[in-house]
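The aim of this short unit is practical: by the end, you should be able to scan a pair of folded records and say something sensible about each. We start with the first protein, listed as its amino acid sequence and then its structure tokens.
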Amino acid sequence: MPASGPTGIVHLATRSPELSGDQMVASLTPPPQFAHASFESYRADPAFPSQQEAKEMLIAFAGGRPDAPRGGLFRRRPKQPELKPGVYLDGGFGVGKTHLLAAIYHAMPVRRKYFGSFIEYTALVGALGYQNVVKLFTGADLLCIDEFELDDPGDTMVMTRLLGELVATGTRLAATSNTPPNALGEGRFAAQDFLREIHAMAESFQTIRIDGTDYRHRDVDGHAVALEAADYEAAIESASGEALVSDDAFDDVVAQLARVHPSRYIRLIEGVSLVGLRDVSAFTDQSAALRFVALVDRIYDAQIPIRATGITLDRVFPEAMLAGGYRKKYLRAISRLVASTLA
């Protein structure tokens, strides 16, 4: 069957996308894998009652009605506690926090609502300036913040200040924190860590605990796939005959990420159905590594496979970086890189 869209090869290292503030804001919607997430499609595990309890509280937060309790048609429904303007979903990796966050977004019957990762919101502030972002979001009904980062005090302070201004004008908030997969016993950021870091906003958030086991059962100790040069060339050639793919030297992409603002990374991969990276090597510069993490998030959210040569992509962050303050962020990226090379 002939290809229905653009085909061929593009180079991320030569793309210099532009994105207006309005376009950046318009892109703040759930990623493709959660485009249709709903409370109905969230399957609470009976072994962990907190999952059903969280689901019911969030349905109420979104303006719906929890499932009727069993025990008779006229049984009085337990009075639900009054919810604060913000909810924080506290739980380990793989218990469905992002699914529930997207379900809130889809279910809340309001006109102005936004869904983005913490990095997307802070990138927006970096690109447009704090006051311009305040103006853009003032009057918004709902902000969903996935993977709230607690490892950068400056960004945390900026987001806390922004959320405080928006709550004062009636905006409601829903957030999760950045929890890595099976991170060697670091199962999650505890709620008290989140509330301590955003102390100025803590009273605006109600913590909703979600217990459970990782439904994906991913092993962070697994390795990404690295291809031999001939296999890589064959994969790129085959894929480019059916769709648009990218093919770049790893170092060239890393260099381009320093020239393109992170808020525009989503446009770097626009239209691409497969990302090719040649001669992958380990990072020596932390700023470059963090920019690559931001790109990996965009690639993963778009569900784009990666094909690569060189060292396996799960080894690009050296031990010194993994032992530092951004450990959780790097571990999340490793999991996503492994999944993307296996896709």
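Turning to the second protein, read its sequence before its tokens, just as you did above.
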Amino acid sequence: MPIDPYVLLLLATVGLAALLPARGAAADVASGASTAAIAFLFFLYGARLSTREAVEGLRHWRLHLTVLACTFVVFPVLGLAARGLVPVLLTHPLYQGLLFLTLVPSTVQSSIAFTSMARGNVPAAICAGSFSSLVGIVATPLLAAALLGSGTGGFSADSLVEIVLQLLVPFLAGQLLRRWIGGFVTRHKKVLGLVDRGSILLVVYTAFSEGMVQGIWHQVSPVRLGGLLAVEAVLLAVMLALTWYGGKAMGFGREDRIALQFAGSKKSLASGLPMASVLFGAHASLAVLPLMLFHQMQLMVCAVIAKRRSRDPLDGETSDSPLPTEPTHATAATGPTGR
């Protein structure tokens, strides 16, 4: 099962923040740079989203609405149900991070990659991930305000204005300028991808530095981390089963069910980290910990599922398990695992 190299970089960044946290003037510089990086990230997200592809994808509206329902309705309901695990398995701060995890949008790149590997409906996965990211810019902060309230570390009307200025305005600016800069963004996709990842690393360093200075890491023990991993494993398994069997009950074909399973059961680290930094402030380090762990878990599990599904025959539904058993066919399609 794959270990995402980027997750290793994230962990290294957390280690750096633990050993050398930004303090005083350095913390102010890091915070300002993090704010600028978040705005630039969402500007790039807007510049990359093809309006034409989004409009064409409306033909699969039933599938997209189902993905959105899984992402912003079913996931949060399961997150609220996990409240009963406090304080037996989870501390309250870890539960807030888990609940925040259930509110962030779905992934784009890895959903597309896994859907392609499993020979699913790739155009639908592209549009579903894009719609989820677009809706999440508005839905995630609003859901956080409703479900987390002041527990986010001071969510208020000022926080909402900050979210609009840091996330929504840059995204809309990217969309408006896409006509002129879209070609440049496409041609330099690899370089800008490195900028994306570097910006997120900066956000993580700033958040975990603040956490170290505040001393909040003393609230986490190995037993609590083990409990969090167990809860997240159950959460992922439930969503994988619901999206697969639910898609069958709704009459979706095999290719659409694959797109639904991968887009509807995953959460975006790239979108969630910057949002957590804005929403949680000094408490962001504990808030993003569940998301970082879930991100790696979903990559490992979905990579196995995609490889197994790539061997399923195309003429019929021979495998109805959300976690496929060993297939009888020897030929396998391969592809990137993505992020």
